[in-house]
């Protein structure tokens, strides 16, 4: 399993409730898609959302986002090393 950090832009004004709903929808697909969301951060002012996931591929991470929100990440970065 590889860790990935994906970045979304354009979510200005996102609320905590909206973020929780998105995480809930993603969690429902975790087992089916083999992707586990570890943590999500958001800045409502800039509209940037960061998601840290474990998954088999960047494509799998993208498919989960596509199926749950229709909002694809603007960037997906593998995180091969962390402490």
Explain what this protein looks like in three dimensions.
- The structure is a single chain.
- With 83 residues, this protein is of the alpha+beta class.
- It is built from 3 helices and 4 strands.
- The chain has a 4-stranded antiparallel beta sheet.
- Strand 2 and strand 3 form a beta hairpin.
- The longest helix has 12 residues.
- The protein is globular and about 35 Å long.
- The model has no long low-confidence stretch (mean pLDDT 93).
Residue-averaged pLDDT? 93
Helix content: 25-40%
Question: Care to count the β-strands?
Answer: 4
- The quaternary structure here is single chain
Task: Describe the sheet with the most strands.
Answer: 4 strands, antiparallel
Helix count equals 3
Unreliable residue runs: none
Structural class: alpha+beta
If you compute it from the alpha carbons, what radius of gyration comes out, rounded to the nearest whole angstrom?
12 Å
The neighbouring-strand order within the major sheet is: 2-3-1-4
| Elements, N to C (H/E) | EHHEEHE
Shape: globular
Distance between the termini: 16 Å
Descriptive tags:
83 residues; alpha+beta; four-stranded antiparallel sheet; 3 helices; 33% helix; 34% strand; globular
Note the topology.
Layout: E1 2-8, H1 16-27, H2 30-33, E2 36-43, E3 48-55, H3 58-68, E4 75-79
Antiparallel strand pairs: 1-3, 1-4, 2-3
Short description:
This protein is an alpha+beta fold and about 80 residues long. It has helices spanning about 15-25, 30-35, 60-70; strands spanning about 1-10, 35-45, 50-55, 75-80. A four-stranded antiparallel sheet has the order 2-3-1-4.
């Amino acid at each position: 399993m590889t860790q990935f950090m994906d970045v979304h832009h354009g979510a200005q004004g996102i609320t905590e409730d909206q973020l929780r709903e998105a995480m809930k929808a993603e969690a429902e697909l975790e087992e089916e898609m083999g992707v586990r969301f570890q943590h999500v951060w958001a800045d409502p002012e800039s509209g940037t959302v960061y998601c840290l996931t474990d998954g088999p591929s960047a494509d799998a991470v993208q498919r989960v986002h596509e199926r749950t929100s229709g909002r694809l990440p603007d960037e997906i970065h593998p995180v091969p090393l962390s402490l």
